[in-house]
Request: fold
Amino acid sequence: MLPTTEMLKLARVVFDEHTIRRRVQELGQEITAAYPSGDLLVLGLLKGSFIFLSDLVRRIDRPLQVDFLVAASYGSGTVSSGDVRLLYDPATQLEGRHILLVEDIVDTGKTINRLVELLRKRRPESLEICALLHKHVAPRLALEPRFVGFDAPPAFLVGYGLDHAENFRHLPHIASLT
Ligand code: IMP
Ligand code: MG
Reply:
């Protein structure tokens, strides 16, 4: 494998900072309009969603709360292992609240399928997904994301929260390593 500085030179910008900012603003407006009333909990899936979530909630113009889930599936590779482990489960009560699960990217759908199963057991008032990126390759999704930032190309993407072996999360744009 190439050293990370070498890999960065190979990267190609797929979504630039300005494009992301504009789309996140629109998503915030869509989400604001979709929840006219009720208690809204925005549940960010760490680590990948941390930048997206922090930009997104500032564009949602209604009362809300924020909590996080930590799930791990990829290890250091670029292929989903399908072994989704939940490392932190929110202590917050989910029953009776609108839950908006915020994901960085939907790839095989294994993460979403596992989380949807777990979260539905907590009997939320509603459960929706907001994904920054959607690869549209998942054979079956327990819940299709209601809010999607961008359709993603079939490449391994990094930046704006997305990593490769924990690198590149800090990039302000989204780049392709391949
Ligand atoms: P899934 O379970 O295969 O849908 O994978 C979802 C998780 O895998 C995401 O939350 C990401 O953390 C990671 N992932 C999937 N595709 C990519 C990618 O292109 N770049 C970086 N991470 C990815
Ligand atoms: Mg990851």
